[in-house]
Write a structure and sequence with these properties.
Blueprint lengths: L1 H31 L2 H27 L13 H30 L7 H28 L3 H30 L3 H29 L5 H13 L7 E10 L2 E10 L5 H19 L3 E9 L28 H4 L8
Parallel strand pairs: 2-3
Antiparallel strand pairs: 1-2
Helix pairs in contact: 1-2, 1-4, 1-5, 2-3, 2-5, 2-6, 3-5, 3-6, 4-5, 5-6
């Protein structure tokens, strides 16, 4: 799939950039001896490890389906994101520990004016790469790439905050500002790591993505075919960049196999037009029942048992149900 190849290329770029920025941040630390800079450099170690893991997970996720993995290998992305979130939280606790100690036993800082420029350059590079990775990850529905992008953005924000802290130290001469900034950053990093783990576990456990379901339902409602009398038991499961949709589609009971197949084709093509070739379907067709007539919009139906009364608007509440709808 083209999107999987693009994800792999972006992740390779992100990993390479993480290694370069890791070196630059340690240069800034040896220049300044600042604990907040050291905390930023330690987080960069996590960035490098997470980048390598993310790269491998995207490589696995890009593999085609096989006998052992009939739904593909996309779940590898969720595992990668969970591991990355764990690394982020670990880095946050290390930063907090070192910061609290240094707050009570301040270290001597020097060459801050040069170190701040090195930090700002790494923050800008991280910001650009993070926005790029997150944008493409959302477009291609890749949690691993979105997580990498989020990680880079968090890293850039923390670096900017640390640069501001160093600027305040330069202005005031109060060295404890450095430790205070590092403590705040440690808490912020832990929180963001938790969010990444929460999202990855939701994917591993096939938790319903309500926002995605709303998007799918809205698209179906906008260009709905009269022959789709009812829709129920809708499920959307994500396997990395692949989206699997299960549902029951009610069509006229008198349709033959080919006619029912054409109705399903129209239904799947509508969704693929919106979400691309990363969607696969399992659509079960049901024949309509007499109680379906009041919500059926087919005009001139010779088999109608009751007059049309009301068009049923499909929403989250009624399409998730495993029952055919009726007034």
């Amino acid at each position: 799939m083209q999107s999987a190849k693009q994800n792999l290329k972006i992740q390779f770029f992100v990993t390479t950039l993480s290694i370069v920025l890791f070196v630059l941040k340690f240069v800034a630390y040896f220049m300044t001896h600042s604990l907040s800079v050291l905390s930023d450099a330690l987080e960069s170690i996590v960035n490098v490890l997470a980048g390598i893991i993310g790269l491998y997970s995207l490589y696995v996720a890009s593999k085609p389906k096989d006998k052992e993995h009939p739904y593909g290998h996309g779940k590898a992305e969720f595992i990668s994101a969970a591991f990355e979130g764990s690394l982020i939280i670990t880095a946050g606790f290390i930063i907090l520990y070192e910061s609290v100690i240094t707050f009570f036993e301040p270290t001597t800082l020097h060459d801050l004016d040069n170190g701040i420029w090195v930090l700002l350059s790494t923050a800008i590079l991280n910001l650009i790469a993070g926005f790029l990775a997150k944008k493409i990850g959302r477009k291609n529905k890749s949690l691993a790439l979105v997580s990498s992008g989020q990680h880079l953005l968090i890293d850039s924000f923390t670096t900017f905050a640390i640069a501001i802290g160093i600027g305040l130290v330069l202005l005031t001469g109060y060295n404890k500002i450095d430790a205070i900034v590092a403590i705040i950053m440690g808490i912020w990093i832990i929180y963001n790591g938790y969010k990444i783990i929460r999202e990855s576990l939701a994917g591993i456990m096939d938790e319903a993505d309500m926002a995605l379901l709303e998007e799918v339902i809205q698209e179906i409602n906008q260009t709905r075919n009269a022959n789709w009398i009812d829709l129920h038991n809708l499920r959307v499961i994500k396997y990395g960049a692949l989206m699997h949709i299960d549902c029951h589609l009610t069509v006229p009971w008198y349709y033959n196999v080919n006619e029912a197949h054409f109705a399903v084709d129209d239904f799947t093509k509508l969704i693929q037009k919106k979400f691309g070739d990363s969607v696969e379907f399992f659509v079960h067709t049901d024949g309509c029942m007499p109680f379906s007539c009041p919500i059926c919009t087919i005009e001139g139906c010779e088999k109608r048992k009751a007059p049309f009364l009301q068009k049923l608007n499909w929403d989250l509440e009624n399409v998730l149900s495993n029952l055919k709808h009726q007034l």
